[in-house]
């Protein structure tokens, strides 16, 4: 079965323990795909450093405040406010509208930071899979002053972020099959996505056709093309048994960040035996690693 032929059921995040939350806030006109939820820690007083969580689902599935928010909610328990955002799925709106949506969400949160006890100067993006791709592309393009659209609201406010956590991050969407070919030859890891490169593949829907016929779109969607010295610091996490997103692509991106922005701008953490499954990353040592990274890079005590 091809990825986009799967049936997905929304499993909501377990947020009953959270005492302060603000739901379904519109960060831009356009309906419920442009809304967000804000969760505040039960302890302490704001302003809280902010994590904006971007769900994954092959660009094709998903919605805010699903069970994939669990890692971010464990960072909530460590003193960070969490924002879960919706965005247009790949079959609903033409890319790169999704990047404009993420940027609009950042600007909205920063604009109303005081109202919601948030620290607008300490904001990070956290994404997994397609969400990591959107997080990376948003962060590096904003730092470079690229992918701007003046038609979106709150343009007078910065959409730059101070840090990014990217969990099994796709990068060059034109080389997915080729990366896995190398991984299979090198250590026997074979992809389970046989339709990469086809028009009905997950990245084909996002790009509007096969990657080989959409080279300009591939370049537009490649966060590697926007790296500058102003690139925010990244923490990459990737499982050694990921058969959906090639680890080689994420490693190459991390190396390019180090080359352009500095060795301290990227960290890469492999998770032994982990698959392309957020549950494999729901571990206390990973939450501690992420929290320590964010505290260091955002100057949080």
Polypeptide structure, described:
The chain has 301 residues and is of the alpha/beta class. 30% of the residues lie in helices and 18% in strands. It is built from eight helices and eight strands; from the N terminus they run βββαβαβαβαααβαβα. It has helices at 70-76, 97-111, 130-144, 176-187, 202-207, 215-220, 247-261, 284-298; strands spanning 20-26, 35-40, 48-54, 81-85, 118-128, 163-167, 234-239, 266-271. An eight-stranded mixed beta sheet has the order 1-2-4-3-5-6-7-8, sandwiched between helices. A hairpin with an 8-residue loop joins strand 1 (20-26) and strand 2. Helix 2 packs across helix 3. The termini are far apart. The mean pLDDT is 98.
Task: For this entry, give a set of tags.
single chain, 8 strands, 18% strand, globular
| Ends distance | 48 Å
Q: Total number of β-strand segments?
A: 8
How would you classify the quaternary structure? single chain
Q: Specify Rg, calculated over alpha carbons.
A: 18 Å
Number of helices: 8
Strand order of the largest sheet: 1-2-4-3-5-6-7-8
Order of helices and strands: EEEHEHEHEHHHEHEH
Instruction: State the helicity in percent bands.
Output: 25-40%
Rounded mean pLDDT score = 98
Strand content: 15-25%
Q: For the report, how would you describe the main beta sheet?
A: 8 strands, mixed
What shape does the CA trace take?
Answer: globular
Structural class: alpha/beta
Low-pLDDT regions:
none
């Amino acid at each position: 079965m091809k990825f986009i032929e799967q049936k997905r059921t929304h499993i909501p995040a377990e947020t009953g323990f959270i005492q302060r939350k603000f739901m379904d806030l519109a960060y831009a006109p356009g309906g419920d795909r442009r809304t967000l939820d804000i969760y505040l820690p039960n302890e302490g007083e704001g302003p809280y450093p902010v994590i904006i969580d971007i769900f994954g689902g092959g660009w094709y599935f998903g919605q805010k405040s699903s069970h994939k928010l669990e890692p971010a909610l464990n960072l909530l328990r460590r003193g960070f406010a969490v924002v879960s955002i919706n965005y247009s799925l790949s079959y609903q709106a033409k890319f790169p509208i999704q990047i404009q949506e993420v940027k609009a969400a950042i600007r909205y949160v920063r604009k109303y930071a005081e109202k919601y006890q948030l620290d607008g100067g300490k904001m990070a993006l956290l994404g997994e899979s397609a969400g990591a791709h959107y997080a990376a592309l948003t962060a590096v393009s904003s730092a470079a002053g690229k992918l701007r659209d003046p038609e979106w609201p709150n343009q007078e406010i910065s959409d730059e972020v101070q840090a990014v956590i990217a969990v099994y991050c796709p990068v060059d969407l034109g080389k997915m099959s080729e990366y896995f070919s190398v991984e299979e030859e090198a250590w026997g890891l074979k992809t389970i996505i046989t339709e990469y490169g086809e028009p009905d593949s997950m990245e084909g829907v996002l790009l509007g056709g096969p990657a080989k016929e959409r080279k300009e779109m591939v370049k537009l969607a490649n966060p590697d093309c926007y790296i500058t010295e102003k690139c925010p610091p990244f923490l990459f996490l990737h499982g050694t048994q990921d058969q959906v997103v090639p680890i080689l692509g994420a490693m190459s991106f991390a190396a390019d960040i180090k080359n352009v922005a500095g060795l301290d701008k990227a960290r890469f953490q492999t998770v032994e035996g982990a698959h392309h499954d957020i549950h494999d990353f729901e571990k206390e040592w990973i939450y501690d690693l992420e929290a320590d990274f964010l505290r260091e890079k955002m100057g949080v005590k």
